[in-house]
Amino acid sequence: MFVCPGCARGGDVGLHMLPVGGDVPEGRARWDFDGDLETPTLSPSILTRYTMHGTDGPREWVCHSFLRAGVFEFLTDSTHPFAGQQVPLPDLPDWAVREG
Prior knowledge:
This protein is mostly beta strands.
């Protein structure tokens, strides 16, 4: 579980949960994880697409990145202000962290 700053906007936190390792149903994506909880690397790239419906009509939103050594590398096809930039992985919100 991680927070993507490119997907965090308005009231959304940008929280993602991706299947890593193990078995996943056929046709479903799976990411490789290096096991580092502090500065993780996931592969392949992470691509999120959806349509936002606002007062000016529908608009496609794209967030496309690599997460390498705890740093997001946002690709230029992203439609948010972080496109083409590198941004450190933010901490999880307190409510998402299990104690103990």
